[in-house]
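Board work, copied verbatim: Putative FMNH2-dependent dimethyl sulfone monooxygenase
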Amino acid sequence: MSTDSIADEIKFAYWVPNVSGGLVTSTIEQRTDWGYDYNIKLAQTAENNGFEYALSQVRYEASYGAEYQHESTSFSLALLLATQRLKVIAAVHPGLWHPAVLAKLGATADHLSKGRFAINVVSGWFKDEFTHLGEPWLEHDERYRRSGEFLEVIRKIWTEDNVDYRGDFYRIHDFTLKPKPLNTPERPNPELFQGGNSTAARNNGGRFADWYFSNGKDFDGVTEQIDDLRAVAQAHNRSVKFGLNGFIIARDTEKEARDTLREIVEKANRPAVEGFRDAVQQAGNSTGDKKGMWADSKFEDLVQYNDGFKTQLIGTPEQIAERIVAYKRLGVDLILGGFLHFQEEIEYFGEKVLPLVRELEASQTPAAVL
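↓ predict structure ↓
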């Protein structure tokens, strides 16, 4: 076990609701909004309640309960300009972006935000978004090969001059970007996140990314992914941080939290969940080892469309804090949280859960847990 990850405090991010419909595909009340004004206030609330990161979602057209969407990179910049400390991660699709164009946008956003811009490379799960735009839809492992090149190219452009790159998907000829993003003591370039669950995603994360984002997982699932990720990273003389998605239902009593989960699932928008399931399970099942995203997800899991219920951050503040620190001991560096009622629940988390996490971390020094 790495003592470095134990010594550092676990970090927290939240899903930016820049897509309508909330974070669960259910008719239950969700006190949230996909609009600009709501999200500005939410970002400011989050950074004042212990959240270090926010992740803007990417969807390009209506799908599975998400009728409206704000574009992720422009929305991320708006949030950055309205906050002081929050780091905002924009989700992007290779195949719909050229890495040099995104590198240019990212450098500008990084300067405007004084070094708080990041990207999450999403290799693509929604085939219609590509085919409706006349773009080729690649098979699973080919999409991840393209993402690997995308990550490699964008880091080179951000850190090197006169870049030449000859890949299967991208060709760069003597290209120099100026100004480059800020080089800060925390990071030499904007942080690069790789999302996914498959073996191909883990290989990309270990070889090319700064962070690896996982869908929701229990302890066994997290351990398996971290072991694979570290093995790949070590083989390439690298280290990678691990982020875990979890839908957080923190209530004063466990019964109230479990009743909320039960109501979410009971009121699921069944046609939307089933449509999403049919669209995404081909992604995981199309891999040779069946380890891709959503490959083993049940209907109940998919009501939160990134398997957030699997992480089981559901219960009292004490129960959730203990589980978060248990994930940290396994090597999780960041929790990406989704919420039913974003504004008040992020405040509740910051007031009730986060102080308990910090107390538990302080009591569990490296010497105590080895």
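The two ends are 8 Å apart (CA to CA).
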